[in-house]
């Protein structure tokens, strides 16, 4: 199960507190992913979700809070990127009062249409606003966040969560509600839709905690720590590799210079102090300057040893020319 779907299921399990909260939840859910279609001569209001548990949850809400004797229809509709999406349909004529109550349809001279403007009465109290946000999250949120099963193995980078809608006005109002909780997102247009996105890991954690997905918050916190640790280890490994490469290149350059001198004028042509470091290098071709100082009996600093090697390289270059 994906992290995104896990969070939705957990939010469903956190429950709804009252009739007003149930209406606010359904309002958020229906506003965020609702559509109207005509089928077999009848109008249907439908929502599509990758959360199979949503059908039973909505059905339980209808029975518990609205004494509904009419059951919505559910069908396994299609798959995208190996994810199965479920369609929940409400026959408009049978659920008209409910759809009017949650503020997702308008009736104008007998003509029915979708309503994107939010019912402010459903957002007056804090618990109702949170229930509305839960509905929106389950209906419109997607996330690219992946949780590594093995802390040592990366399965993704970055933290991205977004809400998509056909209505810019709806996402603008949603962004204002989220801003009341210091959750700040940005809106942009993507093809024929609009997207409100959040890319800050801490902000995503705050949102999940606000909606009651506390286990998901812990999962994400662990993933953040694991990624930071992996990045730190990778930086250290890269630094070590860079130092090794630097040591190897320097040693090779010094060894080649010494061999050039041996092949042309002989090692004995060098001053005694240079002969000593040349022999030391030939005997230890893979060691760093620090290791050479430990192995030698010569009283030199690292800078002094490096200075002698530069002299040897300069002599070899002159001989080559």
Task: Write down the Rg.
Answer: 34 Å
Order of helices and strands: HHEEHEEHEEHEEHEEHHHHH
Largest sheet, spatial ordering of strands? 1-2-4-3
Report the sheet with the most strands, covering strand number, pairing sense and barrel closure. Answer: 4 strands, antiparallel
The name CATH uses for the topology of the largest domain is Endonuclease I-creI
CATH architecture of the largest domain: Roll
Q: In terms of structural class, how would the helical and strand content be classed? A: alpha+beta
The H-level CATH homologous superfamily of the largest domain, spelled out, is: Homing endonucleases
CATH class term of the largest domain: Alpha Beta
* Shape verdict: rod-shaped
Number of helices: 11
Number of domains: 2
Distance between the termini: 68 Å
Summarize the structure.
The model has no long low-confidence stretch (mean pLDDT 83). The longest helix is centred in the last third of the chain and has 51 residues. This protein has 321 residues and is an alpha+beta fold.
Description:
With 321 residues, the protein is α+β, with helices and mostly antiparallel strands. The chain folds into two domains: 3-212, Endonuclease I-creI; 243-320, no CATH class. Helices cover 55% and strands 18% of the residues. The protein has eleven helices and ten strands. The protein has helices at 3-13, 19-33, 53-66, 92-101, 126-140, 168-179, 201-210, 214-264, 272-283, 289-295, 302-320, and strands at residues 34-39, 42-49, 73-80, 83-91, 105-108, 111-114, 141-143, 161-165, 186-190, 193-198. It has a four-stranded antiparallel β-sheet. It has a four-stranded antiparallel β-sheet with strand order 7-8-10-9. A two-stranded antiparallel sheet has the order 5-6. Helix 2 (19-33) runs parallel beside helix 5 (126-140). The model has no long low-confidence stretch (mean pLDDT 83).
């Amino acid at each position: 199960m994906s992290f995104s779907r896990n969070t939705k299921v957990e939010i469903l399990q956190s429950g709804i507190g009252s009739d007003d909260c149930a209406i606010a939840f359904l309002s958020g859910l229906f506003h965020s992913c609702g559509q109207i279609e005509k089928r077999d001569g009848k109008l249907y209001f439908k929502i599509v979700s990758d959360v199979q548990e949503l059908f039973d949850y909505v059905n339980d809400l209808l029975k518990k809070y609205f004494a509904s004797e009419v059951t919505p229809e559910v069908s396994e509709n299609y798959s995208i990127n190996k994810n199965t999406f479920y369609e929940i349909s409400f026959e408009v004529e049978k659920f008209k009062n409910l759809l009017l109550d949650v503020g997702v349809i308008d009736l104008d001279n007998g003509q029915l249409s979708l309503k994107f403007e939010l019912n402010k009465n459903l957002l007056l109290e804090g618990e109702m606003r949170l229930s509305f946000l839960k509905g929106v999250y389950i209906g419109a949120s997607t996330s690219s966040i992946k949780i590594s099963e093995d802390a040592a193995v990366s399965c993704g980078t970055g933290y991205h969560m977004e809400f998509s809608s056909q209505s810019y006005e709806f996402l603008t109002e949603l962004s204002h509600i989220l801003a009341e909780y210091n959750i700040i997102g940005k809106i942009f247009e993507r093809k024929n839709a609009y997207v409100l996105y959040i890319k800050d890991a801490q902000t995503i954690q705050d949102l999940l905690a606000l909606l009651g997905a506390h286990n998901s918050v812990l999962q994400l916190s662990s993933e953040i720590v694991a990624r930071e640790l992996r990045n730190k280890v990778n930086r250290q490994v890269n630094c070590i590799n860079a130092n090794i490469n630097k040591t190897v290149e320097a040693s090779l350059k010094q060894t080649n210079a010494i061999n050039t001198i041996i092949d042309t004028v002989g090692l004995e042509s060098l001053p005694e102090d240079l002969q000593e470091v040349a022999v030391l290098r030939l005997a230890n071709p893979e060691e760093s300057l620090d290791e050479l100082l430990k192995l030698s009996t010569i009283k030199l600093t690292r800078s002094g040893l490096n200075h002698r090697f530069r002299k040897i390289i300069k002599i070899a270059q002159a001989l080559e020319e």
